[in-house]
Amino acid sequence: MDEEPVVMIEHQPAHVSILGGGPAGLFAGYYLKDRGVPFTVYEAKERIGGNCVTHRHGDFYFDSGAHRLHDKDRTITDAVANLLGEDLLRTSTPSQILYRGKFVDFPLTLLSLIRHLGLTGTIRAATEVLRSMLRGSGQSWESFEDFAVNTYGHTVAERFLLTYSEKLWGVPCVRISSSMARTRLKGLNLRTFLKETVRAKDDTVEHFEGTFYYPKRGIGMIADKLGEICGSESIRTDASITGISHDNGRIATVTINGAEEIAVEDVMTTLPLPYFLRIMDPPPDGEILALADTFHYRSLILVAFFLNRDRISPNATTYCPEAKFVFTRAYEPRNRSPFMSPDGKTSLVVEIACDHGDAYWKMDDDGLTALVLSQLSEVGWVKNDELIDSEVKRMEYAYPVLQVGTEEKTRRILDYLACFENLKVAGRNACFTYTSIHEVLSSTWEVVTGRDV
Ligand SMILES: Cc1cc2nc3c(=O)[nH]c(=O)nc-3n(C[C@H](O)[C@H](O)[C@H](O)COP(=O)(O)OP(=O)(O)OC[C@H]3O[C@@H](n4cnc5c(N)ncnc54)[C@H](O)[C@@H]3O)c2cc1C
């Protein structure tokens, strides 16, 4: 990655204003710092890290959602390993799906399918998968539902993929873009199935989905380290961008907290795409704004329980697709790294996917905690006498919801923004893509250098 020139705006920038202090913004700053280019990161919240932070509750740590660093891009994994050194752990921890009172391995294995569906049901599911493979290979499906059903068959898709996804995104899977399936279900194929089935008998074989990198004290260590290298003099927190003025095809100023107008040289935005368009002055034409108005982000509520108990389950994540659970998944931070809770104690965090302003979003912390606690007690995961404390966190803009047709709308909006000669767009919510940390970092790299990683 080293020795690349800065070609972000086709010249050596005099100064770059980076809007948003999540992984994308901080990674851009880290790169610019290394090349001696002055920059300022403007972050709305009181801390950096965006959707990728670790919260502290006494001696317990928990992430803003069940995070892991996927080892899918060697250059990025190496870059993070260089940043964190021995603080980056490699872990192999399985995940499961809780369905009708039974735990099913995820990715699916033959044994867990037989346990769940019985022999006849498994043969039916396997026949459906084989038929789908023969019929559907090479086809491009438009919706998540078409992709899932035509790739995995009705039985597997209905039970394990569609109900979960509808709960997560709050939209029927026929309206969700198949690109979400290609991202989320990457690796869920016959090869993985066979590998995982072998693994079930042989624990020396690594879990496909369950092998990942994870920082010792939580995923937030990545952003914290990037921030440390960027330097506090180059980061302004509590600095919400509330206005963008432009003139003659160039971004001219940004307004901070509705009060302070700052002239800018070059700009990189990682802000949610529709929000950025709405604060532009003069505003984009009506067609662009109308496209952006159809974009939707899913919010997330985390409810964390801190427990006087050694362990709840061996799982990295337990997926809970059934509607009877208010949460979509639960995870035990300690199973990612033992440093996430004190010895002999553990914690359990559940994720409730919701829309900003809906009934769950508005429910007070005590109400949410009681609701989740009653459901966790039912499963036997949390007992009242083991409960030390709890905490609720709310996250806006957690997931961009990619609906059928969204990619084309995004392309038109990004084409419009590409006309501003001193503006670059990077990051998950700004590009309206369903990207993981490694993809965000590598695409930010491409934006800053103009080259592939
Ligand atoms: C629940 C959950 C689980 C996830 N799990 C994984 C995982 O296991 N592995 C993985 O690789 N990825 C995971 N991700 C994805 C990962 O978190 C994102 O890819 C990453 O955070 C995107 O970084 P970003 O910088 O593009 O955006 P963000 O993290 O969203 O950062 C954007 C920043 O911009 C700031 N901002 C917004 N508006 C303004 C404004 N007006 N002015 C100034 N600043 C502003 C925000 O406060 C934020 O700090 C997960 C995401 C979620 C929500």
State Rg.
23 Å
Proportion of strand residues: 15-25%
CATH superfamily of the largest domain: FAD/NAD(P)-binding domain
The low-pLDDT segments are: 201-208
Relative helix content: 25-40%
Integer count of domains: 3
Enumerate the distinct ligands: flavin-adenine dinucleotide
Distance from first to last alpha carbon: 7 Å
Mean residue pLDDT:
90
Strands of the widest sheet, in order across it, are 7-6-16-17-18-15-19
How many strand segments? 20
What oligomeric state is this? Answer: single chain
Predict the CATH topology of the largest domain: FAD/NAD(P)-binding domain
The helix/strand class is: alpha/beta
Tell me about the largest β-sheet. 7 strands, mixed
Given the structure, what is the number of helices? 14
Shape: globular
Per CATH, the class of the largest domain reads Alpha Beta
CATH architecture of the largest domain: 3-Layer(bba) Sandwich
What does this protein structure show overall?
It is a single chain. This protein is of the alpha/beta class and 453 residues long. The protein has 3 domains: 191 residues, FAD/NAD(P)-binding domain (3-Layer(bba) Sandwich), CATH 3.50.50.60; 115 residues, no CATH class; 104 residues, Protoporphyrinogen oxidase, mitochondrial, domain 2 (Polyamine Oxidase, Chain A, domain 2, Alpha-Beta Complex). The chain is built from 14 helices and 20 strands. It has a 7-stranded mixed sheet. The longest helix has 27 residues. About 2% of the residues have low confidence. Bound molecules: flavin-adenine dinucleotide (FAD). Flavin-adenine dinucleotide (FAD) binds next to helix 1, strand 19, helix 13 and helix 14.
